[in-house]
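Moderator note: this is an archived Q&A kept for reference. The question asked for a predicted structure of one protein chain; the sequence and the answer are reproduced below.
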Amino acid sequence: MSSSDSPVISLSRDIEAIQIPSGLTKKLEKGTPVIITQALGGTYTVVVEHSAGLFRVLAQDADALGKTPAPEATPDASSGKTGGPLKEDDIWAQLKTCYDPEIPVNIVDLGLIYSMEIKPQEGGGNLVEVKMTLTAPGCGMGPSIASDAQRKILTVPGVTDAQVDVVWDPPWSADRISQDGKVKLGMV
């Protein structure tokens, strides 16, 4: 759906939104007209009509857009996960709920995740360390995307700490996009 097909929404309250691509936080005031251009992974990308700027609105502020906030991401109940041993697949599933606010493909299928390591901790629990990159080195959204990934990893039972680092070596290329990602982007 293009932004011209989407209705204009007036924010019902003041919110803090993340400017794209700078990553800077900016207050959007109650009554500001916005159009939702993407709603994935519990976050919203909106264009602010009067400034033609793009912003990321977090799930906690969905109500200001007239939306119901998505429940905090949790592992898929159908997987049978009930607090048993930590499964790497549960972490990958959470990473697949994270999106670059400008691209409708999750960060895993976009090829932004370079590595993920689970390290058991003394006294129980696990530290999850992720190395990820961005599609462009100048993108200011890196800290926001990394924070989103970290927050979602921490929802996985058995994970007591998570560290997500943005790295630039090797440089990202479109060759890293999965087949599913290429289909979503119309590359095949």
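Archived answer notes: The CA atoms of residues 112 and 134 lie 6 Å apart.
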